[in-house]
Design goal:
With 443 residues, the chain is an alpha/beta fold. The protein has helices at 3-6, 30-33, 39-54, 92-96, 98-103, 114-123, 136-142, 150-157, 186-192, 200-203, 226-245, 256-269, 271-277, 282-303, 344-369, 381-391, 398-407, 412-425; strands at residues 60-64, 69-72, 76-81, 127-132, 162-166, 169-173, 177-184, 205-209, 250-253, 340-341, 395-397, 428-432, 435-438. A hairpin with a 4-residue loop joins β1 and β2.
Length: 443
Amino acid sequence: MNTLHSAMEADQDLHIAKHIEPENLPAMIQPVMALAQSDAERDMLLMSLLTAAGSCMPNLYFRYGLTGKKYYASLQCFIVGSAACGKGIANLALELVGKVHESLPLVIAGDSSYAGFYKQLASQAGRGYIHESEGSVITDVWRSSVANYNTALRKAAEHEPITRNRANSSSSIARPQLSVLLTGTFGQYKALVPSIENGYFSRLLTLIVNDQQAFSHRYVEAETGSNSVMIRAAEQMYGLFERLYKSHPIEFLLTNEQRSRLGHHLETAYPALMQALGVNFHSVVLRMAVHIERIAMILTAMRHSALIRGEGDELKSPHTMRENEHTDSRMTFGKINDAFVCSDEDYQTAEMIGNKLILHMAAAYRMIKGAEEVSVPKVQPLDQRKMLLSLLPEEFEVQNLVTEAKAQGLSYRTATRWNEGWLEEGVVVKIRHGVYRKSSASA
């Protein structure tokens, strides 16, 4: 059986974008998303746009963990698929950052020696975007020891210093902000991530696509075609970049409720998956919290791009733009304590994306190990029901149920139908109209 296809055979729906209402995405990318013609294309385009957009968001960060470490909007993503699955649509992401790159260099070629990669990243104040539609471009050049910058990508994913040491000089990029988007076959993916013990696996978001693209005549009108849509999106992306580039460093915040939910969700939703796959998968679950918050930050910044105010009339040279040039400040949206705070809508979208991606990464995990069996542990409806119920508070309203269900990619109809089943089974009891409580039978 084909390993790539068997890896994704499971009862759950692993598509991502189909569970997001188009109007719930930032207006900047809604017309771009409309160019996709299938669920698979929408998934690939969404992840591509999020990755590319994050590369255009300097001075935007959040703090995570007990040490309050700073994380930026830098995603690294590999879209795995067979030939003719439509991976080419991911190249629209390169057009999204085109105007930014014309103003200040941003894009770094994957076909670079380590010295060339390091030099360009350093010249761009540690910021960059690698976009390669053939993963083999990178893996081929990495066969040379002088060109392998795998370690640099792993460090950049955590914003750890990338150093270069020579007999007569040494230098370091203190806090790199590098976004990476790669597409390719599973063979190319495995050449990049040869083992599950490789630290890059948990840092690299993986999207697996099985759908074969149907042949279609894609004739478009000049006013509504991809060219005009991407020109407008690129202009809006540049406007956001310009405002952020001129700004003081801006801290992005989850609300206390969102932060608590994120931790609780990862602790309760995936223990069975970790048990099935082994201890090495634990790092994927832990890092997914950072990925989810990055995605939420990117969505929120694009949504509120018109409210971000810059300083000065001209862009500064990247050589003069350093992290500590300004003191930290917070963006004022007038939402919660006048801080740049994630909306519930964007958090729910980001969490749902993370829920789906973690299953794609489970498939990649099994494929790397060479497993012949089904590579995503099946999530039967009963298991999903238990997962949903476990995430609800002891006493919950219909809105709590709908919110949790949406984060799992479940419809309102499915959630309410399951709740009716819980009532019949005595798992929950009705307190009053629209309000329910878990019973002892749910334990």
